[in-house]
Write a structure and sequence with these properties.
It is a single chain. By secondary structure, this protein is of the alpha+beta class. It has one domain. The chain contains four helices and three strands. A three-stranded antiparallel β-sheet has the order 1-2-3. α2 packs parallel to α3 and α2 crosses α4. The radius of gyration is 21 Å and the shape is globular. The model has no long low-confidence stretch (mean pLDDT about 90).
């Protein structure tokens, strides 16, 4: 679900087409956008505090075979939330799950890892190393 939450709706839709026939589904709830309070902790283990609010979109769908999928995604992309919920439902089907993982989840995860690596590479290129030279005495 974390891979789907970080992917765009258009990218999910494009890869979902490669997963064979998509079953009919109905929306049970949403997609609907709202706000959630993001909390933090000073130093990672200090007292919790309210950091601020964040937009979130949620959706729940049911396939014609009765599988129910849920999704919460950051932002207001209703299509992304709906498709993520559909993929969640498809992953519960033992016959479809391997194909969905191979054709959709794994390519999205690889793309996201490549993006993280590219950002890390740019950051590493600007890294400054400070060092102290010790005086050599004989």
């Amino acid at each position: 679900m974390s891979v789907l939450a970080r992917a765009s709706g258009s990218r999910i839709a494009a890869l979902l087409e490669e997963c064979g026939e998509i079953p009919a589904f109905i929306r049970i709830r949403g997609p609907e956008a709202g706000l959630v309070m993001v909390r933090g902790r000073a130093g990672g283990d200090g007292a919790p505090f309210n950091l601020g609010e964040m937009s979130v979109t949620r959706c729940t769908v049911r396939t014609d075979s009765g599988l129910i999928g849920h999704a919460y995604v950051a932002g207001r992309d209703e299509r992304q939330a709906e498709l993520a919920a559909l993929v969640d439902a498809l992953m519960q089907d033992p016959e479809r799950a391997p194909l969905v993982r191979e054709k959709l989840i794994d390519p999205l995860a690889q793309y996201q890892q490549a993006e993280r690596d590219a950002v890390a590479g740019k950051a590493a290129a600007t890294k400054v190393q400070f060092f102290a030279m010790q005086t050599m005495r004989t």
